[in-house]
Amino acid sequence: MARRTHSSPSPRTRVRRLHERARYDREAIDSVLDAGLVAHLGFVSEGQPFVIPTLHARIGDEVYVHGSAASRTLRALASAIPACLTVTLLDGIVLARSVFEHSMNYRSVVVLGTAHAVEDPSEKLAALEAFTEKLLPGRWAEARPPTRKELRATSILRLSLDEASAKIRDGGPEDGDTPDAMLDVWAGHVPLVVRALDPVPDEMLDPGIPVPPGLAPYRRPGLVD
Amino acid sequence: MARRTHSSPSPRTRVRRLHERARYDREAIDSVLDAGLVAHLGFVSEGQPFVIPTLHARIGDEVYVHGSAASRTLRALASAIPACLTVTLLDGIVLARSVFEHSMNYRSVVVLGTAHAVEDPSEKLAALEAFTEKLLPGRWAEARPPTRKELRATSILRLSLDEASAKIRDGGPEDGDTPDAMLDVWAGHVPLVVRALDPVPDEMLDPGIPVPPGLAPYRRPGLVD
With an 8 Å Cβ cutoff, is B97 touching chain A? Predict the structure, then answer.
């Protein structure tokens, strides 16, 4: 399947405020999805929305999530439920001269659609491979593969990227060309970065087993040294 | 009002899997809410769940969020809607010997309840003060206060912490005492930390205005040096 480079905004995903921050191109959407290690999955059960943090991974035009929390809702209702998957990377805080203009720098993606329970074992395996490789490239070949029993015990959901949008805010405050700029108040922004510390071996680990090359040091999109 | 030290699990918030990770005490809940700079607010509009990243701040037994995205739903439906607020702090990746046991270290809080639109100007001001002081202690006294017009343009929602739970996972993989421990696979965890870089002054800033003491360096719960 050809990789789509754009995802059209629907009336539901069109960002209604702060238009200058909205992005509907797949390059922006994919880069946020791929850099984020945690997604927040929203679904509804008996009228109550739930938002659950979960690992996600994109494969082409689909995004997969661990679906344990949503799976009882899925079992109760159907094999597919309306869902929203949101990934947010926090990039900094923005300090304006006025309280009103204070903000955050971030990159976020909102995916609206239907979460389908993945039943096919080969699709489940592909999703597990994507999760594992996302955590550490090369890890799928190193770690013990799932048994059939483990595979059955794993609940995975799939959402399409058909209805997705990205929102990006960066840089400093936007009051530098307003009357507030005359105020005697420091203004600017503070970048926030995520950094990996040294790997901590399991206390039961045979000290003869070397640290995987991908951990020395651990680098991935979204992390800085 | 006395500060409650516990929040009882309801049937909806009781964590059903991995019980050892669940915490219902307010100390755990508050520390995650207070350390997190981003919340994910879930609500439902026309059957579709939405999950929107937003700044939040706790005041006692309530948590406040910027409600711009949810406000059109609120206006359409009522002054209160079922909502879920989730805050997640990612603390690391967990590399087990088996694919199945791979995990993440994290602290998360899920608050279920009803999001109420805040109409009272003094309550709005208190929430804005909490947002601002959360970004940078002392900032409320430095920055220009909101005008009445700005206050009217600010949409704020309130959720009670009556139905809240925390979930915490830390440490290494849990397969050190299983047959997998004999595998020749490195196992352990990689801590992830959030760090603030040096403040970046707004390009329009008068260089004579000093950097606030709270930014030199910027320190808050959830950040490391």
Answer: yes
A48·B112 Cβ contact <8 A: yes
**B114 contacts B83 by C-beta, under 8 angstroms:** yes
Return d(Cα A223, Cα A137) in angstroms, integer: 14
User: Does the domain spanning B19-192 belong to CATH 2.30.110.10?
Assistant: yes
B221 touches chain A (CB under 8 A): no
Closest to A49 (Cβ–Cβ): which among B43, B146, B200?
B43
pTM for the full model? 0.91
Q: Domain A19-224 carries which CATH code?
A: 2.30.110.10
A166 burial type by CB count under 10 A (0-12 exposed, 13-18 middle, 19+ buried): buried
The Cβ of residue B115 has, within 10 Å, a number of other Cβ atoms equal to 29
Q: Is the sign of the CA dihedral A52, B45, A64, B54 positive or negative?
A: negative
> Which residues 178-217 on chain B approach chain A with CB closer than 8 angstroms?
180-181, 183-197, 199-206, 209-212, 215
User: Closest Cα partner for B55 from B46, B47, B64?
Assistant: B64
Please state the length of chain A.
225
| B130-176 confidence digits (pLDDT tens) | 999 999 999 999 999 999 999 998 999 999 999 999 999 999 999 98
Any idea where the domains of chain A sit in the sequence? Answer: 19-224
Q: For residue A83, give the H/E element and its range.
A: strand A80-95
CA distances from A143 to A66, A147, A200, B132, B183 (A): 19, 12, 17, 46, 9
How many residues belong to chain B?
A: 225
* pLDDT tens track for A125-173: 999 999 999 999 999 999 999 999 999 989 999 999 999 999 999 999 9
- B86 lies within 8 A of chain A by CB: yes
Are the beta carbons of B53 and A86 separated by less than 8 Å? yes
Helix (H, G, I), strand (E, B) or coil at B92: strand
Beta bridge partners of A85: A41, A111
- Within the 4-43 window of chain B, which residues sit less than 8 Å (CB to CB) from chain A? 12, 16-17, 37-38, 40-43
- Chain A residues 105-124 with a CB less than 8 Å from chain B: 106, 108, 110, 112
End-to-end, the C-alpha distance of chain B in Å comes to 36
Q: How far is CA B73 from the centre of its chain?
A: 22
Q: Which chain A residue shows the shortest CA-CA distance from B98?
A: A144
Tell me whether residues A51 and B72 touch, CB distance under 8 A. Answer: no
Identify the H or E element spanning B28: helix B26-35
| C-alpha closest to that of B41 among B57, B59, B53 | B53
